[in-house]
Write a structure and sequence with these properties.
Layout: E1 9-14, H1 17-25, E2 34-36, E3 43-44, H2 46-49, H3 59-65, E4 70-72, H4 76-93, E5 97-101, E6 104-108, H5 113-116, H6 119-134, E7 138-143, H7 146-156, E8 161-163, H8 169-173, H9 186-194, H10 200-205, H11 208-215, H12 217-226, E9 243-249, H13 257-277, E10 280-291, E11 296-307, H14 310-323, H15 325-331, E12 333-341, E13 344-345, H16 359-374, E14 393-394
Parallel strand pairs: 2-4, 7-8
Antiparallel strand pairs: 1-6, 1-7, 2-3, 5-6, 9-12, 9-14, 10-11, 10-12, 10-13
Helix pairs in contact: 4-6, 11-12, 13-14
Subcellular location: Cytoplasm
Pfam family, one: IMS_C
Subunit structure: Monomer.
């Protein structure tokens, strides 16, 4: 009986996705540092990243680091089309695909050896196919677990392929910095490093009780397992997103509450349409804010009944913004976002009495129909007339 020497899981991750699409579509940008987004960096090409430009960095700071960068506005329709084309390649490779975001996914190819070869051979063909069919570079990590496959792709970037053999997992993982562990962000990293813990090996050498005492039960148990290469999660086909959202970078200029309300209306209007297009309902509206000192805050409201009704969702979002007004003025708002969570499929919710359909639902349906037929700009709210539409940026699924 043949036993594979390679893990069955691939993590495929497009390289500097937004910037790569811009370089693909405009040959003049190839080989040059490219920044997508003006007020805040949404994406940067590797030519810009090598000079220190990072996603979510302020545009002015990015240009100080990389003064010769070409700054381009985002084209969300182009990125969405490219993502769909890449996911077609994924699904042509294996039916077991779990999308993580617009530009990355896990693929399980464990059952394809007899017809398609080893996981590394499949990964090589996948990379070549994405480049040939979509024109974009993609990095793939191959491993026994999802966590190790994701770490492998991160280490192999850009435009690379890395296989972690099952008998060499800890040899690969333990020398890496603690930030490579899934779930270690800035705060957790600072806690670990303040105690002299800098590598994954040092995390693995700690007793679990010490990690729990330091980081809490959930995080401590999670990192204790990952540092030892333990991750039993399978690739989940058809995994439904738990939230959807959009956000708008505002730059440093102070905005009045009236201006912020206009932005809020634009974001909620567009997001509610996406919610209905996906046949989903939401119970929780989340207001996301980032401030001039780069700190963040969120406010949320959970409704009694799940809905996709624009006016209901807008009323909840407006209430959250009003409640956060003091934060907005005191700390200087630089990013405003809305997300919907607690999503459920349309039709799976027990309706509350009485059963009459609200007039607003019919209005939403009519507006969606007009936009579907004639384009999203064919009809808009009177309060938004004469204003430039806000640049909404899809948030990654949780």
């Amino acid at each position: 009986m043949f036993v594979s020497t390679e893990g069955p899981i691939l993590h495929a991750d497009l390289d500097a996705f937004y910037a790569s699409v811009e370089q693909r579509d405009d040959p003049r940008l190839r080989g040059r540092p490219v920044i997508v987004g003006g007020g805040v960096v949404l994406a940067a090409s590797y030519e810009a990243k090598r000079l220190g430009v990072r996603t979510a960095m302020g545009g002015a700071q990015a240009l100080r680091l990389c003064p010769h960068a070409v700054v381009v506005p985002p084209r969300m329709a182009a990125y969405s089309a490219a993502s769909k084309a890449v996911f077609e390649v994924f699904r042509d490779t294996t039916p077991i695909v779990e999308g993580l975001s617009i530009d990355e996914a896990f693929l399980d190819v464990g059952g394809l050896r007899r017809i398609a070869g080893s996981p590394s051979e499949i990964a090589r063909r996948l990379r070549a196919e994405v480049l040939a069919r979509v024109g974009l570079p993609i990095t793939v990590g191959v491993a026994r677990t999802k966590f190790l496959a994701k770490v492998a792709s991160a280490v192999a970037k850009p435009d690379g392929l890395l296989v972690v053999p099952p008998d060499g997992e800890l040899e690969f993982l333990h020398p890496l910095p603690v930030e490579r562990l899934w779930g270690v962000g800035k705060v957790t990293s600072e806690k670990l490093r303040s105690r002299g813990i800098r590598t994954v090996r040092q995390v693995a050498e700690l007793p679990e009780v010490d990690l729990v005492s330091m980081l809490g039960r959930g995080a401590g148990h999670h990192l204790h397992a990952l540092s030892r290469g333990l991750d039993p999660r399978p690739v989940q086909v058809g995994r439904r997103r738990r939230s959807m959202g959009s956000q708008r970078a505002l730059g440093r200029r102070r905005r009045s509450m009236a201006e912020l309300d206009e932005l809020l209306v634009s974001i909620v209007d567009r997001l509610a349409r996406r919610l209905r297009s996906a046949s989903r309902l939401t119970r929780t509206v989340v207001l996301r804010m980032r401030f001039a000192d780069f700190t963040r805050a969120t406010r949320s409201r959970t409704m009694v009944e799940a809905t996709d009704h624009t006016e209901t969702l807008l009323a909840a979002a407006r209430k959250l913004l009003v409640e956060a007004q003091s934060l907005v003025y005191d700390r200087g708002l630089t990013l405003l976002g809305i997300s919907f969570s607690n999503l459920t499929p349309h039709g799976s919710v027990q309706l509350m009495l009485p059963f009459e359909i609200e007039d607003g639902v019919a209005v939403d349906s009519a507006v969606d129909g007009i936009r579907d037929r004639f384009g999203s700009a064919a009809i808009t709210r009177g309060s938004l007339l004469g204003h430039e539409p806000g640049m909404s940026v899809p948030l990654l699924p949780d």
